[in-house]
Amino acid sequence: MRFLKFPFLVHLNIQxxxxxxxxxxxxxxxxxxxxxxxxxRHAPTYSVFVLDRPEVMYYSLVNLPEKEKTVIIWTWKSEQxxxxxxxxxxxxxxxxxxRITFNKNxxxxxxxxxxxxxxxxxxxxxxxxxxxxxxxxxxxEMQFKLSLxxxxxxxxxxxxxxxxxxxxxxxxxxxxEFFKKFHVKRAVVSLSFKDSPLKGSFQLLxxxxxxxxxxxxxxxxxxxxxxxxxxxTGPSELKKRDLxxxxxxxxxxxxxxxxxxxxxxxxxVDVHTIMNKFDLSRWDPQVxxxxxxxxxxxxxxxxxxxxxxxxxxQNGIVRRKSDGLRALATTFDGQFHFHVFHNExxxx
Length: 348
Known about the structure:
The protein is α/β, with parallel strands linked by helices. It is built from eleven helices and 15 strands.
């Protein structure tokens, strides 16, 4: 390969102008090209496996949540492999015969692979991620974006950083099976709509951060059982009495885990009906500053009220008698916001 005869600085300058997908293919050419690609200063990033249709998987890099850039696609549609000349894709972890084409719109490489069974597909996905971690400095923690019909094709791992759930036709038992199989360390983002199988899931209630872009299916019985740090919902059919029941439950209970709850209700949220149920003290935003943790900023920045809107709505501080923990309750334009101040509690 003539490229390898160039000086090292020439290699680096050429690679600066290559797309991640081009660098990936270059790293497959030989051990020397793999070493060259690895020698670049790759900014640490996360990856996401996307499974939204049968027999196809996408591997993307993501610097900003929900802004992933696909670097490679692979499919195991066997009819596409008949009487076709294949190439060898080789690395430290991969040795695979496949046909290589390119998406005509994005120029993303597509590997047409004759995987014989599910375990073969899982091994390839796992090996590809290991390759990306070593060569491109990708963070080891995987992320998934999928319809749960295809969960059996996911790579081998027990722990996942974030999961985005797409529309699916499975039932809540499959959802619970997923959460038992994969420990979600950070956040679950649901893009499912009205007939979501999350409706009956018990395991979802235990995830630390849950962001639902739509929650028409969410009923009071399940709403009051969530045991997470942050719960953010898009449009829901939760009523005033459900929100009042939530605040009462928090005041009478011992939940020290909750940080932020944000609910958008399609019903008119009567501020007086909610706020007049509780003894509220004045909120001073200069003293009690509302600060969110990472998953909220990453996935719910457009949903969560800013400080400006919090001040516009009717608001006040509720205090729990049992331990003195305080929370800001706010209603504004059909939205209910509940934010717990942990700092002073943690100092005690």
